[in-house]
Amino acid sequence: MAHTVYLTNADISLGKRESIYDVAKNLERWVDAVVIRTFAQENVISLAKFAKANVINALTDFEHPCQAVGDFLTIQEHLGSFKGKKLAWVGDGNNVCHSLMLLAAKVGMDFTAITPAGLAPAANVIALAKEIAASTNSRIEISTVPLEGVRDADVVYTDVWVSMGQETDRDSKTKAFSGFQVNAKLMKNAKPTAVFMHCLPAHRGEEVTDEVMTHSSPLCSMKQRIGFIHKRQFFTRC
Fold first, then answer.
1. Mean local confidence (pLDDT), 17-33
2. What does the alpha-carbon distance between residue 156 and residue 183 come to, in Å, rounded to a whole number?
3. Alpha helix (H) residue ranges in the chain
């Protein structure tokens, strides 16, 4: 049986009230593992460097590996395998995109990141993913054209246009994402059996339409199995 202790930012003010080093040295004496959800990637790196306890990244501004693991478990349960399958990411080249890309490369699934110019995933993540993909015979591609990028995709995935910490850029980012909404027209270019995924919360009417989120009758009449998957949950109303 595992026992947990929940510490909020107000409890420890990581790196402010107390240094990350001191927090790490205290935590390693009390627990076997630390699950940290923070903003700066450097906080996780530093905590893992200083603490002897296992450190799990529950979210940073650069990666979201737990989300990706949960999503790929769902994909495996629904599609059966990763080989020969394609995941198309439509949106910002953000933390979720980074983790999905790296995990796709590891499991041998093709991955295409479709983002506006200037909002592509980090160059070092792309390079690492391509290096890993070379050993698993998968393809990592970057595109700025949504209709072309989602072609033959088994999974179409999106996220909000304005990621955490970028709220002041809402107007400029919303403008940049014109034409990147996941809608019925876009889904038509994916495989007829394609499913839709979102890490939530979703802003209906922005990055995705109500039609795709709820896969209502107009989509079902196209004989497309557009599903909504999140954290091992798959819903279909067709």
1. 95
2. 11
3. 9-12, 20-30, 41-50, 65-79, 95-107, 123-136, 146-149, 170-176, 184-188, 210-214, 217-220
Cβ density class 167-182: b for 16+ within 10 Å, e for less: eeeeeebeebbeebbb
Q: Is the dihedral of CA 211, 217, 223, 228 positive or negative?
A: positive
Q: 103 burial class (0-12, 13-18, 19+ CB within 10 angstroms)?
A: buried
Q: How many CB atoms lie under 10 A from the CB of residue 72?
A: 20
Residue 60's alpha-carbon distances to 23, 36, 99, 146, in angstroms, are 18, 9, 11, 26
Task: Provide the whole-model pTM.
Answer: 0.89
Contact 153, 190 (CB under 8 A): yes
- For the stretch 79-97, pLDDT in tens is 999 999 999 999 999 999 9
C-beta atoms surrounding 51 within 10 Å: 22
Q: What is the pLDDT of residues 195-238, one digit of tens each?
A: 999 999 999 999 999 999 987 433 333 333 444 444 444 333 33
